[in-house]
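Changelog excerpt

This revision adds worked examples to the README so contributors can see how folded entries look when concatenated. The first example is reproduced verbatim below.
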Amino acid sequence: MKKIQTTLILLLVSLLSCKAQNVVPLYQPPNDLPPNAYFKDLDGDYDRFIGN
C-alpha cells in the first residue's frame, strides 16, 4: 500500500512540475517570443530542400 501511495505522489508531483514549451513559426520576430519558446517549421518551408 505504501508503494502505491509513493508512486501516486511522485506521479502527481511530476505532472504538476512539468513546464510546456511554446512552439513558434520560423519567421516570428524575436521580440514577440513567449518564454520557453522554440522555433519549428510549421509551414513546411524546409520541404523544398529535401533531396537536394
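The second example, added in the same revision:
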Amino acid sequence: MIRIVTLSLVLLLIFEGCGKKNRKVHQLTRKGQAHYSIRIKTFSQRDSAEHYAEDFSKTLQRDIYITPSDTSEKSARYAVEIGEFSSSFSAGSYAYKLLKKNVIKNFSLVYNNLPVHDDFANVFFVGSYKNKASVFYYDLKTSSVHLFWSNPKQLVVELSVSKDGKTAFFLSASEFGRETIFPYINNLKLYRINMAEMKVEKLCDLGNGLQLYSNWISPDLFRVIFNAFDKRKNTFVVQSKLSYNSNGKLLSNEKVVYDIEKEKYPVPSLLNTEYPSDNNKLNITFSTADDHNVLSLIDSLRNKKVIYSTHQNLNTAEWWGKGKYFIFSTYDFSRTNIQKRHNPETSKLFIYSIEDKKLIYQWQGEGYKNFILRGDLLIFDDGFDSNSKIMIFNLKDNKMIDTIAMQGGCGIRNISTFLY
C-alpha cells in the first residue's frame, strides 16, 4: 500500500491502480497526525521519490509515505518512509528485520516528520572496563559494542531496562562482597538512563548496607529494596522500599525494621506467581509442591498441565510470539551445587511451545541465565566472572546470531560472580 502526500499523485495512483487487488491509495495530511515511521531514503526530486516508493511497495505489506523532508538540504527534499507505527520500539524492530534481510541498507526513525531516538536498536548491558563493572550498549544495527557509563570509583551492581527500551535504572557501589555470613555493599547510588537523550542522572545515595533487589513491577513502576543494619542496634535490619516511575520521580519510600534475633532475615519475593498471556486465554502458574518448584499451564477451560518441575528456583519468565511460547530461566545457588566449582550447572533457560506442548529449547550451565526479549531476539547471559558472556538467539530463525564477549566478562543485569 502507498499513501502519498500530494493530491495529484494520489489521483494518478488511483487511476493506475484500478483493478489491482489489495491496492488502496489515500491522501495523507501529516499535520496533526502523531505516529512513528521508518525513513529509508531521501530525494531531491518528487518524481524520483515516487518511482522508488512504487518499486519498493511491491516488496512490503506496509504503508509507504512520501513526505517533505525536515532537512534544508536540496538533495533531500522528499523522504520515503514506511509506517505507521505506534512506538519507536515497534518501528525500530520492523526496521531491524528489513536491515538484516538486506531489504534496506540504512534507515532513521521519525515521529510526525521529526527525527527520534531508536528505542529498539541499543541493548544495554553490564561489562568490564578497566576492571570496573560499567554500562555498555550493543548496537543491533551495526553489531558493535560501545561504552556508555563508567566511574573509576564505582562499579555497576545491577542494571534494569524497561521492556519498551525507553528507560533504564542502574545501581553502583564502591565495593561489595561477603564477610562471615553476611554480604555487604558500600556507597550504593541509584541512577536513571534517559534513552531518548542518552544521558545519565543520579537519583539518590543509599549509603552502606547488606543487600539490594531491584526490578520493574510494571511498565511505569520501578522498585529498589535495600537491606541495611540499623545504626543504633546491629541486630536490627532496616529494609527500605523505594518506588520510582519511569521518569525517575520518587513515588514512595517505605521502611520496615526487622529484629533478626527474633525474626528471619528479610528476603523479598520478587517473582510473580502467575503469568497470563497477552490475550489472557492462557496462564502459567508458579507453585511449590514436595520440595519441587512447579510451572503449570492453565487454559481457558481451567484445564491444568504441569510443564516443568525442578529443584531449582524460578529466575525470570516471559511470554513471546503472541502467546505461542513461554520462556523462563531457573537457578540453583545452594552450597551443594556451588561446590561443583568447575561445572556447577547453576542455571537453565527454557523455551516451551504451547502448540507442541513441550520444551523445544534448553540451555544450561554456569551463571544466572538472565534474559530479555527484544522483538524476535532472545538475549541472555551465561557463565561467571571473566568467562561470562551474552548470547543473542533469533527466535524466528531458530539460530544463534551473535555472542558478546569481553575481557572481564559481561551480563544482562550484572557480571555474574560467586560471593561464597
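Reviewer comment on example two: The chain has three domains: 2-115, 153-268, 271-420. The longest strand covers residues 182-194.
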